[in-house]
Amino acid sequence: MASLLRLPSLLAPAAARPAALLRHRGRCLHTSPARLCPAATAAGASSAAPVKMETRGGDREGQVTPRSTDFNAWYTDVIDAAELADYGPVRGTMVIRPYGYAIWEAIQDYLNVKFKETGHSNMYFPQFIPYSFIEKEASHVQGFSPELAVVTIGGGKELEEKLVVRPTSETIVNHMFTKWIQSYRDLPLMINQWANVTRWEMRTKPFIRTLEFLWQEGHTAHATLEEAEKEAMQMIDVYTKFAYEQAAIPVIPGRKSRVETFAGADRTYTIEAMMGDKKALQAGTSHNLGQNFSRAFETQQVVIVPIWKKGDEKGVVMEAVASVQNTLKEAGIRVKMDDSELRTPGWKFNFYEMKGVPIRIELGPRDVKNRSVVLCRRDVPGKQGKEFGISMEPSILVDHIKGRLEEIQASLLQKAITFRDSNIVDVNSYGELKEVISEGKWARGPWSASDADELKVKEETSATIRCFPFDQPEGAKKCFMTGNPADEVAIFAKSY
Amino acid sequence: MASLLRLPSLLAPAAARPAALLRHRGRCLHTSPARLCPAATAAGASSAAPVKMETRGGDREGQVTPRSTDFNAWYTDVIDAAELADYGPVRGTMVIRPYGYAIWEAIQDYLNVKFKETGHSNMYFPQFIPYSFIEKEASHVQGFSPELAVVTIGGGKELEEKLVVRPTSETIVNHMFTKWIQSYRDLPLMINQWANVTRWEMRTKPFIRTLEFLWQEGHTAHATLEEAEKEAMQMIDVYTKFAYEQAAIPVIPGRKSRVETFAGADRTYTIEAMMGDKKALQAGTSHNLGQNFSRAFETQQVVIVPIWKKGDEKGVVMEAVASVQNTLKEAGIRVKMDDSELRTPGWKFNFYEMKGVPIRIELGPRDVKNRSVVLCRRDVPGKQGKEFGISMEPSILVDHIKGRLEEIQASLLQKAITFRDSNIVDVNSYGELKEVISEGKWARGPWSASDADELKVKEETSATIRCFPFDQPEGAKKCFMTGNPADEVAIFAKSY
Q1: Cis amide linkage into residue B394, ω under 30° from 0
Q2: Is B415 on the interface with A (CB under 8 A)?
Q3: What region holds the Aminoacyl-transfer RNA synthetases class-II family profile domain (chains A, B) (predicted)?
Q4: Omega into B130 within 30° of 0, i.e. cis?
């Protein structure tokens, strides 16, 4: 079993999807990567709670095109204004700025614990791969050669053998595994790598597709098919839990159809996410994200904005702010305080909403007098999201905020589940499928037809089988295409 | 100020050395990297406590050439036998295996906290740099062009502009800083990056020099020279503390001479380590490590080896082992238990000594009866390092082990300090310096002579000024070369 997790998708409005590829190699099973594209935060978050661009006292710097006007412009504006990333000097590359990178680190922290619990060790493989390695694997060279960056000069000299900058590490991992695995004693071998990989994408977009991106790839080898299968299922479970519990993305875990299974793999598992535009997240590769989203790690952040007008108010306000900040920190709540005098409170309100910070605390002279604060939930726009007079008393404030953070996470997940479920329609005939797909929705129906039929559906509707979901309805089923008995339902959708 | 930390040096018997390069750029000061080559563990550790190759019941797999017979063979044998790293398929590259990588992760964890405390944010910059960027900086192109890996083909096509795989990120960081820093508002800007970098070294050796290596590089920009200077000193302090407290390497922090200062820098700070062969660790670049060493993170590891002969003994032994393991884990002590039946206890003793695990717990049926364990210190060879009958009672055992771990760290550091200090000799004439250097030691003496004199010393003795140490003797001094008054003493040594 194996797993891949990619940063670019991180800040894109996105979701998670791994694909475990089981492959038999000699006496051990080396399984190639499953991919997890964890997901979305600030930018994506806005699809549920649109960024309010009121300008209460703020200047218009960092102005963001309304999402409804121009989705693409909105997308890049948000990334820029929230300081998530910037363009690198080489076309198609990007610089991941502190706010974007912090989310990646939080994902690493979470998954490192899970990987270690499940027996994986982190390692690091060289990024330069002999060109011949790529050529050795027919399906691999076909898949990756148009996307390769190739080093031909090293130390001022033309190289005898060109080197590929890793697009993924399967070939080099296989090479080393073959060396390390001498007998069953050495199994299972379960490794994980956090690394940068390079794919020469033609059309690029920050976080969605970039020439270089950060990801996580797991590779394991097992003595038996059963054990590999168990591991594959376990990792899908880790990803699924991650998607739901951390990223608030209600993915659908399942198995890929034969047609959609990665070349050379026995089986491919996936978790499929529905994007905001209802397209499915494409499996087996690691880009293309839609507008569904998560708030993943923002649910731990709270920002405090102090407010004062007269100079003599500053002292008391800041004293109270420091005390509140300490209280929250001690309670393990991630908190940022912004007391910059270069920006107005109004500007700050907009800025942190754009960044996706879930709770804002406003604290002014009157609040200090009342020993209370004002709490603003990002996911509930306007006055409804404001709570006045929340006591500064540490135990009360901490409990209140923790409760609100839980609520926000639950509410985001619930909204995403509702969105997903209201866009999956059960179908019992090909006609129904066509209609559902033409509406941009996902179709779910019993399927036991041929690969040729599957390709026909793709040609005629552009929809593919995203997966046979693990969660299957009970009872006898008839294939909606052929009328024959069917063991399972499949989900069809258009994808990125 | 800035900082670089490199993994390759990690497992090499080594030490730490950063060099802060202050450089004035427009209205802000952008300072280029200081480098920290943290250091050494298993392999290096052996120079103080030579790996015992007794084969108590063990087979001779993973046999290690004695260090005294052939240092180079010993070095590569240890890396291989302790499973720290392996060779990659491309010449000069290496795979960092779990045990080696875990140490890197521990260093990351430690330094990330320090960097964040001092106001740095982690970021990620693209690794592909336009060739023109490297050419822009004259000193840079001179320094790095012989070492560059160059991508000339991307997506199947010859590129219009060749791309350099980063040998360091100064040029791209400068490019982005110029964009981000619009006014004093944006200062200080303090970023840090954990990344892989590539240098086309001709002679390579695992961890010492590899084509690709992992490191950490910090870059900061400040409004004033004073602030940059303060930051530079602060980071040197972080590195120095790291070297002493974590890596048990008694480095000498100081300032580089004009001759040894990096081209383009106002000042270069460094921490210089004395290697086991008494060579100094070369500053300003990030390879070349010697035989001095540290046990860095092993001081948190304890290994438990269960011992039984008859089948019916296994149950009770393993029960006790599990309980001891839990006790230690709960006390926050890093513990590994090796109950593999494929290796004898004797084989395991050797294996973990080679890995540098500082304390081994042996637990057999008689110990279970006595409710006690046997403790073996790696740094004290033979029977003197063994303690019998240490109670299993959690509070007693935990206190005992924590005490021993502290002692081991203190003892390692003390040994290294003694080694260092006994090899630094005060000199008062050029003749004395020549003698000291010819003995392979370090010479310390008052210096106020010219750059030309410094170069003459280098030509005639191969020794260079490693630094003007921060720790200076009191009182009036006369330059040992010219007899003129001198403000400072300098340290001269041969380096890698």
Answers
A1: no
A2: no
A3: 91-345
A4: no
Asked whether the beta carbons of B152 and A158 are under 8 A apart, the reply is no
Mutate to test the interface with B, among A7, A10, A80, A90 (most CBs of B within 10 A): A90
State whether CATH 2.60.40.10 applies to domain B298-406.
no
pLDDT tens string, chain B, 496 residues long: the values are 333 444 333 333 222 222 222 222 222 233 333 333 332 322 332 222 222 222 233 333 456 787 677 766 777 777 777 788 899 999 899 999 988 888 788 888 888 998 888 888 999 999 999 998 887 765 556 666 778 999 999 988 999 999 999 998 888 988 898 889 888 888 888 889 999 999 998 777 676 678 998 888 888 787 777 777 777 777 777 777 877 777 666 777 776 676 665 555 566 667 676 655 666 643 222 221 222 223 333 345 788 999 988 778 888 999 999 999 999 988 888 888 888 887 888 888 887 877 778 899 999 999 999 999 999 988 887 788 899 999 999 989 999 999 988 888 788 778 878 888 888 999 999 999 999 999 888 899 999 999 999 999 999 999 988 888 878 999 999 999 999 999 999 989 887 6
Give contacts of A195 with chain B, Cβ < 8 Å. 196
Residue B149 and residue A153: Cβ atoms within 8 Å? yes
Number of C-beta neighbours around residue B322 at 10 A? 14
Report the topology of domain A2-272: BirA Bifunctional Protein; domain 2 (3.30.930)
Record: contact A89-B147, CB cut-off 8 A: no
| B128 neighbourhood in chain A, CB within 8 Å | 88, 90, 93, 149, 198, 211-212
Say which residue the tokens 């991307």 belong to: B154
Question: For residue A284, which of A441, A136, A466 has the smallest C-alpha distance?
Answer: A466
Pick the CATH number of A296-418 from 3.40.50.800, 3.30.43.10, 2.60.40.1730, 1.10.443.10: 3.40.50.800
Residues 314-343 of B with CB under 8 A from A: 342
Residue B246 in tokens: 């974590």
Smallest Cβ–Cβ distance between A202 and the set B129, B145, B155 belongs to B155
A 97-156 residues with CB < 8 A to B: 97-98, 101-102, 104-105, 121-130, 133, 145-156
ipTM of the assembly? 0.72
Do the Cβ atoms of B93 and A211 come within 8 Å?
no
The residues near B262 (Cβ < 8 Å, ≥ 6 apart) are: B19, B21, B32, B139, B256, B268, B284
User: How many Cβ contacts (< 8 angstroms) between chains A and B?
Assistant: 164
pLDDT in tens, A267-322: 666 767 665 556 664 322 222 122 222 333 334 578 899 998 877 888 899 999 99
- Residue A297 token pair: 């790690």
Q: Establish if A94 touches chain B: CB-CB under 8 angstroms.
A: yes
Pairwise CB contact (< 8 Å): B125 & A95:
yes
- B171-230 residues touching A, CB cutoff 8 A: 172, 175-176, 179-180, 185, 191, 195-196, 198, 200-202, 211-212, 214
Whether the predicted model's global pTM rises above the 0.80 cut: no
Let me know if A424 is exposed, middle or buried by CB neighbors in 10 A (0-12, 13-18, 19+). Answer: middle
Topology adopted by domain A424-493: Translation Initiation Factor IF3 (3.30.110)
Q: Which chain B residues are Cβ-neighbours of A97 within 8 angstroms?
A: 123
Compare CB distances from B101 to A122, A145, A201 and report the shortest one's residue: A122
Is residue A80 classed as helix, strand or coil in its secondary structure? helix
User: Contact A128/B95, CB-based, under 8 Å?
Assistant: no
A149 with B154: Cβ contact below 8 A:
yes
Residue A453, burial from CB neighbour count under 10 angstroms (0-12, 13-18, 19+)? middle
Domain residue extents for chain B: 2-272, 298-406, 424-493
